[in-house]
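Hey,

Quick one before I head out. I ran the complex with adenosine-5'-diphosphate overnight. Inputs first:
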Amino acid sequence: MALKPSGLQTKVILLFAVTVISVVTISTFIAMILTGPLVEEEVYRRALAQARLIAHALVNERAFDDPQALMRGLRQIENDLPSVKQADVFLHNPEHHLLATTDSSAEHLELDHISNISTYNEYENLPSEDAITIETPDGDFWIMGVTILKQGNPIGCLMLKVSKSHSGDVTRNLVLQNLVVLLASLGVVALVIHIFFLRSVRAPMKEMVRVMEAAESGELSVRARVASPDETGQLATHLNRMLARIENFNAELARQVEGATAELARRNEELRRINEELFDTQRKLARSERLAVAGQLAASLAHEIGTPLNSISGHVQLLARRPTGDEVADRRLRIIESQIDNIVRSVKQLLAWTRKFELQMGPVNLPRLVEESVLLSSPSLEHRHIKVKTEIDRNFPDIVADGGYLQQVFLNLINNSMDAMPRGGELRLRLRHPAEGDPREVSIEVEDTGEGIAPETLAHIFEPMFTTKRMGTGAGLGLAICDQIVRQHGGVIRATSRIKQGTVFTIVLPLDCSEKSETPPAVTIASPSVVS
Ligand SMILES: Nc1ncnc2c1ncn2[C@@H]1O[C@H](COP(=O)(O)OP(=O)(O)O)[C@@H](O)[C@H]1O
Ligand SMILES: [Mg+2]
C-alpha cells in the first residue's frame, strides 16, 4: 500500500521521526557532555594502570638493565595504548637521567616541578582533571608519571605523554554507535507503526470509506465489518447503527410515500367514479327530461291531433267507399286516406314509446320466441334476399320475462337489420347461456352484414327520435323502445358496429327478469307496437 503524503499514517510517521530525531539529537548532545569527562577519566585511568603494569614488567624482565629491552617495553606501551604518544624512562637519581625514550626528537617529559619521588607518588594518584596537561598544536596531552620500584625501592620513573583527544574519539564512537542503534530502532519502530496502521487503522478506515461510498450511492443495506473492539471498531459500530437508522427512516418514508400515493390513487379513482356517475346521472336526467317533454308532446298531440284526425279519417273513409266516378278525385282520396293512416301510425308510435310497459312476467322459451320473430319477418327477409342463421347454446334455459315485449324487441332489431341490408346479406341470431361467463344471465345477439353504423352515430342510436332514415320511413323510436323494454327487464342492450361490415346488437337478460324488473308507471296508453 503506497503512502500518501497527506495520509494520516505518513503524518504519524513523520511526527514520530521528527520527535525521535529531536530527542535523539538532544540526548546525544547531553550524552556527549556527560559521557565526555567519564570517558576521559576512564582513558586516563586505563593509561595509568597500563603504565604501572609496564613499569613493573620493566623491572621484572630486567629491562631496566638492558636499554634495548627497555626500548621494546616502551614500544609495547605505544602499541597497547594508542593514546600514548611518547614514553620516557628516567633513572631515580637527582639528575633524573633519561634512560630511554620513544621519541628522541621530542622534548623530554621530565617536568620541572616533579623533583622527587614523593612528588611522583602524589602525582600517580591525581584524578584526570587535576592531571598535568599540555596543549600543543597537535592536540591536548596528559603528562603522567609512574614510579618504577625494585624490591620496594624506587629505581626510576616512567613518564607518559597521553593524547586527550583519544578519549574524545572514544566518546564520539560511543555516541555514534548509540546513534546508529537509535536510528535502526527508529526504522524498526516506523515499520511497526506502518504495519500497525495498515492493520489497525487503514484497513478499518478503508472498510468504512467503502461502506460510506456505497451508502452515498444509495445502497443503504451495506454494513462495515467490525474487526476489533478498539476505537475504529466502535466507529464502525456507530456507522453501522447510523446506516441502520437511515435505512429504517428511508423505508418508513418510502412506506409513507407509498401509502400517500395509494391513498391519492384511491381518491383519484373515487373522484373519477363520482365524475362518471355524475356524468351518467346528468345524461340520464337529460334523457328523462327529453323523454318527459316528448311524452307530454305526444300526449297533447294525441289529444290535439287525434280527435280531428279521427273525424277526418271517418269522413275520408265514407267518401272513399262511395266512388265519385272521377278517377283523379278517387285516386287523390286514396292517397289522402293512406297519408292519414301514416299520421295515425306515427301518433300511435309516439304514444307507445312515451308510456312505460306493464310487463306480464312468465316463463319464456327464448329460442322459440326468436324463431317466431324470424317467421313473422320472413316475407320481408325473403324479399330482400337475407339469409338467417340461428345459433343456440345447448341446454338454453327458459327465462322469466314478458314474451310479448321481448318479441317486440326482436322484431324491431330484425326490422333495423333488414333496413341496413337493402341488397341482401346475412342475419345471425345467437342465444348464449351463460352470458359472458355469468350463469345467472342469458344473452341474445342480433348480427347483420349491413352498412354498419359510424362511431359518431353509434353514441345516439338509443336516443328517442334519433334516426338516419328519411322522413316518413323512420320515427327514430325503435331502439329507444327496445332499450326501455330491456331495461325494464333488468337487462342491458348495447351495439357494436363496423362501417360497411355490419352491426351486432347484444341483449343481456337475467334468468329471472321479475327480480330486477322496474316498476311500471301508473298510466298506460297503448298496446305494444312494432315500429320502423
Ligand atoms: N342494424 C342496423 N344497422 C345500421 N344502422 C342501424 C341498425 N339499427 C339501427 N340503426 C341506426 O339507428 C337509428 C335508430 O334506429 P331506430 O331507433 O330503430 O329508429 P329508425 O329505425 O326509425 O331510424 C337508425 O336510423 C339507424 O341509423
Ligand atoms: Mg327502426
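The CA atoms of residues 195 and 201 lie 10 Å apart.

Talk tomorrow,
K.
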